[in-house]
Amino acid sequence: MINPQLNERGELQHLLTVEGLPREVILNILDTAQSFISVTEREVKKVPLLRGKSVFNLFFENSTRTRTTFEIAAKRLSADVINLNIPTSSASKGESLLDTIDNLSAMHADMFVVRHAQSGAAHLIAKHVGAQAHVINAGDGRHAHPTQGLLDIYTIRHYKQDLSRLTVAIVGDVLHSRVARSLIHALTTLGAPEVRVVGPKTLMPAGVEQLGVRVCHDMREGIRDCDVIVTLRLQNERMRGALLPSPQEFSKAYGLTSERLALAKPDAIVMHPGPMNRGVEIDSSVADGRQSVILPQVTFGIAVRMAVMAILAGG
Amino acid sequence: MSGLPDAEALCTALIGQMQGRLPSDAAIVGIVTGGAWLAERLHAALGLATPMGRLDISFYRDDFGKKGLHHQVKPSQIPFEVQDRHVVLVDDVLYTGRTVRAAMNELFDYGRPAKIELAVLADRGGRELPIAAQYCGASVSVPGGQILVLERGDAGRFNLQLSDKRRERKPANP
């Protein structure tokens, strides 16, 4: 199978999805990110790797954290960053996606960071620009959010080191979650032995078992003896039709409370990709508690995005 | 390899040159990989109180656009305040001077040192930048197109090796 992310030498040309990414490529990204952590802790938080390169942030869908962390990552690599606010740009005047890309390419863009509500948008752009520029998928529809999956796996490795003995539970709205898909692929590629997805039947994608995960509809059973709990945001804006009676009903059955967290291992860590709905998928006592690593995830996210950009630009 | 000086003897000579020449709070910083091995030796032999540092200059290379990122970049570690300190950069072989240029740039991103000196085991000439070593084990002449590198064998013994042009150091025990 042709992997559109890799060039003919097997190097990363675009980052579109974690699916099908070779183990060595993932490990190289994680190891490189570790080196960038030390850069962000010093006096001058900048290295000259991407000096003179232009990185275009194309966010066709709202995002604060992801866009900001990509911007910081690019700036710490000394790139010039151009943020396009698409809802107020030509796209809203009817310009097609690929026309937008052609115009930006004519401005000598070196890298596109793309977020789009349509699954496959980043693939389409990558196919269009080929070897002329690099494309990073910053979330496409329900499909993939590879840098989030990679920063999640970075966080897990940081706190738990050895992935080969871990039980990981991913809890909540798996159906709409590109974060869950990217993390599942990263975990299975790196050999985590047990990955559980926990949530109501209506928020579970059909055939999710084929990704190599165990499906649990009971929260207590799902998080028992886990090392890592990843809570997902309930994506109200993507809900079509009556998938849930109400967020309150969901919270009663699947919200992560201190009592439920006690079923996991005592040193279990709690993650969330943000933004959180406090009191829905996660209680404040857990989100702000001693086992929460939600804010370190954000910090690691910058280093992981620096690593991805540096590896792409150097390919 | 015939014709190459004994790296252990050069190391001893280098220590002799540096002994008594550094202030008590001077810091030694080795450039990964060979320079860091050498820095470990110098640091122990000179009995410096400041912990030694390590620089992986991959993020500062001027040929990044051509060669990309080196696999297995190691985090740089500078476990002391660089501001106003006398720093001795250490590398195994001094050649074009581009590695030292990159290392100085990185060092300045930690603070403004009072002084930077350079110690190398071997100087093979061929400079492309105005850089010179204050402490040098020996000048070595190397045929063009060949690479001179420091290898660390069993029991940590140093050995200078010639090899054909290549991008990466071979693993210690292939």
Helical residue percent band of chain B: 10-25%
Count of alpha and pi helical runs of chain A = 11
| Order of adjacent strands in the largest pleated sheet of chain A | 7-6-5-8-9
SSE run of chain A: HEHEHEHEHEHEEHEHHEHH
Mean pLDDT of chain A: 92
Helix content of chain A: 25-40%
Shape field of chain A: globular
Structural class by helix and strand composition of chain A: alpha/beta
Give the termini distance of chain B in whole angstroms. 19 Å
Rg calculated over all Cα atoms of chain B: 15 Å
Annotation keywords:
heterodimer; A: 315 residues; alpha/beta; 5-stranded parallel sheet; 4-stranded parallel sheet; 11 helices; 9 strands; 14% strand; B: 174 residues; two-stranded antiparallel ribbon; 7 strands; disordered C terminus
Helix and strand arrangement:
The complex is a heterodimer of chains A (315) and B (174).
Chain A: H1 23-39, E1 54-59, H2 65-76, E2 80-85, H3 97-106, E3 111-116, H4 121-129, E4 134-140, H5 146-160, E5 167-171, H6 178-189, E6 194-198, E7 214-216, H7 219-223, E8 228-231, H8 247-254, H9 258-261, E9 269-271, H10 284-287, H11 294-314
Parallel strand pairs in A: 1-2, 1-3, 3-4, 5-6, 5-8, 6-7, 8-9
Helix pairs in contact in A: 1-5, 1-11, 2-11, 3-4, 5-6, 5-11
Chain B: H1 7-18, E1 27-31, H2 34-46, E2 53-55, H3 64-67, E3 86-94, H4 98-108, E4 115-123, E5 135-139, E6 146-152, E7 158-164
Parallel strand pairs in B: 1-2, 1-3, 3-4, 4-5
Antiparallel strand pairs in B: 6-7
